[in-house]
User: Fold this.
Amino acid sequence: MFLAQLVSLEEKKGPLDNRVLDVPEATPVPYAIFQFISAADGVSAYRVSGETEGKIRISPDGWLYLEEPLEWSPGKTHTLTIEALSADDEPIDGPYSVILHVTDVNNNPPVFTQSQYSGSIREHSPAGVPFLQVSAIDKDDANTPNAVLSYSIESQFPNPTGQLFFSINPNNGEISTTEEGAAFLRARNVLGLTYSRGETRGSAEVLKKKFDEFCTPKNELPIENNPFFTCVQRAETRRFNAVEDPDYTLIVRVEDLGGGAPNSLSSTAYINIAITPNLWVNPGQIRIKENLVHEYPKIITSVRSNDPNARYRLVQKEREIPFPFTINVDGEIFVTEALDREQKDMYILVVLAEDKDGVELESPMEIQVKVEDENDNEPVCVHAESVFEVQENEKVGKLAHRIIRRTINEHLFYCLMFQSPTNPADGMFHIDGTRGKIQVAKHNFRRKDVPEYQLKIGVTNGGECSVIIRIIDINNEIPIFEKNDYGIYSVPELAEVGTTLLNIKATDADDPGTGSSKVEYHITSGDPDKLFSIEVDDATGEGRVYIAQPLDYEVQSTYQLQIDARNPEPLIEGVQYNESSSAVVVIQLVDVDEPPVFSVDILNVNVPENVTVGTVLLTAEAKDPEEKKIKFRLEGDEHGWLEVDPDSGELKTKAEMDREVVEQLKVRIIAYETEDQKQEVEKEVSIQLLDVNDNFPKLQKTQGFMCVKQLTPLVLTAVDGDAEPNGEPFTFSLNMVRKSPNWEITPVDGTSAKLILKKRPTTDQTYNIPINIKDNAGMGVTHKFEGKKDFLIKSPATDCCINDSSHDVCPDNQSAC
Assistant:
């Protein structure tokens, strides 16, 4: 029996009590559920009753098992009652309530709601927009992965490019086109038929009318017997029926367990897809010649909705008046009058296709109408006065700017009428007579002599344009120091960071306020550790040399700095910086008697609380900058556990330490000079005592009594001086020679437990109960918990307990006792 479950049977055993157990549906039988073991003496059999449905049994040794598999349904449970019986079939333990929860197993594959789906999508539809949705159901538990479904496309027919034209949302089964499909899919329209307002697609009557209009000469053969007509009718009917004649067929799969699992269950379905024509196509930009002589209104383009009964409406995007465009019922767009490009050169028409209730049948379409120029205006300057810039060293032939707006209808000529001023020479600029380009004709511009030139340009038919050309300064001057040697400056080595040492200054003859005249200062030698820095005052151009990092006379006493003045803009070709742009200064440090310095900033140490007396915890290291002799002393040791060697700085224990007294010690080690000013410095030392398991849990109270009337459990509480992980939670147990059927101890929390007396004693007694208490690390001892006889005397008046010493009667509320 239960051979298939031998591996896990040991995990299915426990005391007889109230339980809730999970049992999977459709298990092989016999199937062992749980073995109940009663603590009562004399048990010879067990009995189960309740919602067994004739499928649930219990063996004489307490094994609850299935004779037949159970079936799952939402919320399905079996409520049972189990008792332990004596040899006489009398209950001696129980009854206990056992609830079996039937759990779902993945034994139902998902099933599509339809075996075949059909849908259609218009050509040119954007990718990623769903046009069809498939769905499936799974009879397994919806709250488990057994019913989590995932959809995928198994295959596509045909597949001309080797890439899928369709995609499916794995979570909800929505079908849409891929980017490849949106670009590739086209509708079949071999016959080229289109439908007008009121005509039903594929209708026999509509097809007969179109056939008569198309076919000449007329044939006396009845149209129903004309094989060409019946072919057309069949093709048009099938074109709009995805089931009979699909353009593409997909096989889609649905899987449970979220898809992709090796043991998932699945099913498939077919999807037939027809690609329908999309007549709602933007005709592109429309070009109209301005001032066009024509009979108006003039048709310029047409649009067609996919719905033959659509009603068209035309609006202007810019909402400007007038709006010289209209649209008729057939989607033909007209311009109603001649257009003027100088008034408006571009119109954006918004075409709407709506049903009779004004509901949009298509997305709004924007059509651009561009008005082309006609040579009907005199040429004009772009600006009344144009302003351009030229550098001082600009090369001959450099384009300054093109100043006249030109169109395909213009034939303009330009000339330079005059230049002001004319120094260093007239004709500093030249203009291209046909293109209107102003170019540099001569060089040697000097901004400080002529900051700008004014030009007058003549244009065909007597027009004129004014041009101002400003000369931009170039970096052809170098900064020059007011003096190249700033001498010697002394400063104490302990001067604060930010202290100003001196001010320096260099000037530049380039145009003020430009990058060519701005001066920056750089320390280029003598300061490898960047102890000094220079701050520039933009208003005066002066540089403030200051201390950027702490100084130390013992490291270096003298610094000879070289400072270079530079421009942020590069110098022009042929100009270089020289010694005039450099200066030197000597910084001398003044020695100051400094206190000793510890080698580290933080002194922290972690040690076990039971470390051996005399152990060295750390060695404090310090030195005097002037190399004077130093010693060490200790302060702040309130417990007298530590001492420091005055010469070596070794900090060691001189007495036993106890973490239960204090967890962290903070003391100070002082390093001090033994001569001259005897300067000193102190460093705080933090010592963290690490707990060791040197305490065991102890009962707070070792005596108590219990009223025989109500048998209220006694709550026992223990304490332990150790910290985690050597302290709580505690484990309580009865340490009797043989198991007692009448006493039981159960946990309350990490530090307490309940002592329970199961049956009333027949006489007043005093019990000595051995209770073993262990801490979280497993360390503990057995304690004697005593109930003295004088605490357990029964009051004949109240049938409760009284204290024999005080003779105070306990009330019925046992907690008051």
